[in-house]
Amino acid sequence: MGWLTLISTLAGGMLGVGSTLVVESVRTKRDLRLRHGELRRSAYVQYLTALTETETALQALALRHSTPIASGDVVAAFRSTGVIAARYELFLVAPASVYDASREPYDLLRAMRVAIATTSIVVGDDSVEWQALHAPYDRALRKLRAAMRGSLGPTFD
Known about the structure:
Blueprint: H1 2-64, H2 71-79, H3 83-93, H4 96-118, H5 128-152
């Protein structure tokens, strides 16, 4: 009878340790998913903010000065917002679908930068030239936000 008690005690202990390990493993995986989701969410917000600030900086520059504006001033306005660093961070944490969607608004901001530096363009809602640059950027930004929301899961619909 002594052996049977010892064996059942050992089996119960192993079962307890095993279930604790399984629970801890599940908890660790869940915590990692939550932390990665928060990291992605933070990178998304930072990138969207940088895109918006870059657009604002370019518009403000073009509103203050006649276009074309010296290339150095336009590049300085573009880089002042950290959009390039935010783009690199996004590349590290975002799924391919989000990173792919992030390229178009960035490329369209670069096209705005070139237009402001090389052509005579009036910035404003009434300007056909400006709307030709700005409307595609707005559409691309909406697509990017939708891709970001989709990657964050159903709780962000």
